[in-house]
Structure formats: structure tokens, C-alpha cells
Design a protein that fits this description.
The chain is an alpha/beta fold. 45% of the residues lie in helices and 16% in strands. β4, α5 (107-110) and β5 (115-118) form a beta-alpha-beta unit.
Length: 382
């Protein structure tokens, strides 16, 4: 099968899926150059760098797009170039995911091929600057035009069905996989496990519940005096800076984009990973924590509870509850055997349930359904 995967906002997840699919199919992967360069700074030839480090399958054709910010005429020109290239490739399936809103204009044309769309956020996050109406419009167009849809949790599938009236027969739930690109990088990174270090990893956004975490830490410190909270990610959260200034012994803040080469070090240092989100769709941080055998403390929001086995791979607490968040963190910080048991269970879950090989098989079946539906549509059966 010839597959074109368009994911201009690059991530290790899209590369990992392309690699797994390439074991069975011919894959062309389209990514934004600047996004990929940010993850791997210093790489002159990104494709060559990825292949040299075993991060890109030899059968994946990488096409880097020079994504223009704010230049709408140039964006339309790039969209036209992408469509022409896809036409020349004559793919059996086009998989469209995590591309910017302006790429939605290409959806009617892309539908000439069997079209699969991954919708990462069926709902608008609290505090996001993108207008909610734009999010709704983009999701509505994608749900109407795609032959098959992919979301990363049952809760998100329910939103697509209830809010966007997407047919249940075209909605597929496929979890986010373990970001295996970091496995080889982790082997190259020497990290020391610190006694009572907690990691918050990812963008600093309103919906991530950082203020809830900050309210929980004094409760944790009263029982675990040497607790250390590492906050790593870009974004604007003045409360974090104020807390770090007031209690430098408790907090270590890396308020910047974290390149791929540094990710492993943060997870290797941590005893556990905390996700205090007040709302969410899903999270790639949970499988990343599992990759490094770290238990998680998460809130029951979005589709996150679907990948956290409460009491086995971590703990689930209600959102906006600093006391419950603190209690779960303390329980893990004070019990080394419990942490180790949960960490092993997390690593097993990463290999068993969240492997990209299993996800590629599910995705291939979805591609086949899209091809069948597209063929029926052309024949007038639909």
C-alpha cells in the first residue's frame, strides 16, 4: 500500500508510526522542517541524522516542508505544492493529522483518495488563543470529509459522535503509542535517579493545572521535606516563576522547548511523573513516562484514564483537588517498593498495549476500511 502521511507539526509519534507502517507499506511522511529541527538542534541534514541514529526507517520517504508563519499567500502556495506532489505519488491512502487550520482548504481535493484524518483535540482547551469557533469548524469539515477518523480515546470518540454527529462506523479509537524515538536516546543518556524528584513535563498551559500542582506541593513537602519538582516545558505561567522564586529548594524550572536529546535525562531523574490537568483530550506524556518505567499521578480528565490503570501503573485523582494530588504523590514518594512495582507495570504496558507495531496493524485495518468506503462512493453505492 502506498501511504502519504501529512503531519506538518512534527513529532516523534508521527515518525514512529511511519516507521512501523514501513515494515508493511511504502510511506511518504510530510513534516514541517522547523518543527523537526527544534527537536533535533544541530542536525544539518535532518533526514540523514534520523537515519544515522536509527530513528527513521529506510523505507520511509521524508519530505520536509518549509512552513511559513503568518504568510497566508505563501501558505496557500505550499498547500498547492503539497497537493501536486501527492497527486504525482498516486497514494492508496492519505493520512492527514495535526496539520494547521489552513490546510483544511485542501480536504475536498484530498478526498479524491481514500482519506483518513486523525483528530487530536475534539474539544478546545481552556486558555487556548485559537478561537473555539475555528476549532469547531475545522473538526466539522474533517469529520464530514474523511472516509475514516482516528481519535486517541473513547471519550474523544464520544465527543465526535455527540457534538459533530460523526457516524460511529467511521470513528476509530487508537491510543497514542510509546515514543520509541527516545528509547535509543535514553540509552545514550546517563541520568541519576534522585530520591524524591517529581517531574511535570510539557507545555505550560492553563488547562495543565499547574496552579493545582503548586498548591499541592506545600502539602507534599510537609511529609517529604526534600521533595523536588522539576517543571520542564515552554509556555507562560507566572505562578510557576513566583513559586520557584519563593521556594527554590522545591522547584527547578526549565521554561523552554525541550529538544529530543534532553528528554531522556528529565525522565531518568524523576521518581514519578505528575499530570495535574484540569481538562484534557489525551496526553503523550503518559506513554513517555511508561517508556522510562515511571509511575504517573494523573487527573481523571479526557481520555487519560483510559491509559492509566489506577493502582497499577499510577494513580488517578479528581481534577482541581490539591489535597488528593498531594496524597497520591506522597504515597509513591514514600514507598520505594510501590514505585518500583508500578514502574515495572508501566513499562510492560508500554510494550504490550502501546507498541507502535500493534498500532500500525490497527491503523492498516483503518486504511483498508477507508479504501473500501472510497471505492463504494466512486461506484455510487454510497
Amino acid at each position: 500500500m502506498r501511504i502519504v502521511s501529512i503531519g506538518l507539526f512534527a513529532s516523534e509519534d508521527r515518525i514512529a508510526l511511519a516507521n512501523a507502517l514501513a515494515e508493511m507499506h511504502d510511506v511518504t511522511l510530510m513534516l514541517a522542517r522547523d518543527q523537526l529541527a527544534a527537536s533535533f538542534p544541530g542536525a544539518v541534514d535532518l533526514g540523514q541524522f534520523l537515519r544515522q541514529h536509527g530513528l527513521l526507517h529506510p523505507r520511509v520517504t521524508l519530505r520536509l516542508i518549509d512552513y511559513p508563519k503568518g504568510q497566508y499567500r505563501r501558505k496557500l502556495a505550499i498547500a498547492s505544492e503539497i497537493l501536486q506532489e501527492i497527486a504525482a505519488l498516486r497514494p492508496d491512502v492519505v493520512h492527514h493529522e495535526s496539520s494547521p487550520a489552513w490546510m483544511t482548504v485542501s480536504m475536498p481535493w484530498l478526498r479524491r483518495f481514500p482519506l483518513v484524518v486523525t483528530i487530536h483535540d475534539a474539544t478546545q482547551h481552556v486558555g487556548e488563543t485559537q478561537p473555539a469557533a475555528l476549532r469547531f469548524a475545522v473538526n466539522l469539515i474533517e469529520t464530514r470529509l474523511a472516509h475514516q477518523l482516528i481519535v486517541h480515546g473513547r471519550q474523544q470518540a464520544d465527543v465526535l459522535h455527540r457534538v459533530y454527529r460523526a457516524a460511529q462506523g467511521k470513528i476509530n479509537v487508537v491510543p497514542l503509542g510509546t515514543p520509541t524515538a527516545f528509547r535509543s536516546l535514553a540509552q545514550e543518556t546517563v541520568g541519576s535517579l534522585e530520591p524524591h524528584t517529581v517531574l511535570f513535563f510539557g507545555r505550560l498551559c492553563a488547562y495543565k493545572g499547574l496552579e493545582v500542582l503548586l498548591n499541592a506541593i506545600p502539602r507534599v513537602a510537609s511529609r517529604v521535606p526534600d521533595v523536588r519538582v522539576v517543571i520542564a516545558g515552554n509556555g507562560d505561567c507566572p505562578a510557576v516563576q513566583r513559586a520557584a522564586a519563593a521556594h527554590p529548594a522545591w522547584y527547578e524550572v526549565h521554561n523552554r522547548f525541550i529538544p529530543a536529546s534532553e528528554v531522556a535525562g528529565f525522565f531518568q531523574r524523576a521518581r514519578l511523573v505528575v499530570l495535574p490537568y484540569i481538562e484534557a483530550t489525551q496526553s503523550g506524556v503518559v506513554p513517555l513516562a511508561y517508556l522510562f518505567g515511571r509511575p504517573v499521578v494523573c487527573t481523571r480528565v479526557g481520555s487519560i484514564p483510559e491509559v492509566v490503570d489506577h493502582g497499577i501503573t499510577g494513580y488517578l485523582v479528581e481534577p482541581n483537588d490539591p489535597a488528593a494530588l498531594a496524597d497520591a504523590m506522597v504515597r509513591l514518594l514514600q514507598d520505594e517498593d510501590l514505585r518500583a512495582t508500578m514502574g515495572r507495570a508501566a513499562a510492560i504496558k508500554a510494550e504490550r498495549d502501546l507498541s507502535w507495531e500493534a498500532i500500525a496493524l490497527k491503523t492498516t485495518a483503518i486504511y483498508e476500511r477507508a479504501r473500501q468506503l472510497a471505492a463504494c462512493g466512486r461506484s455510487g453505492a454510497f
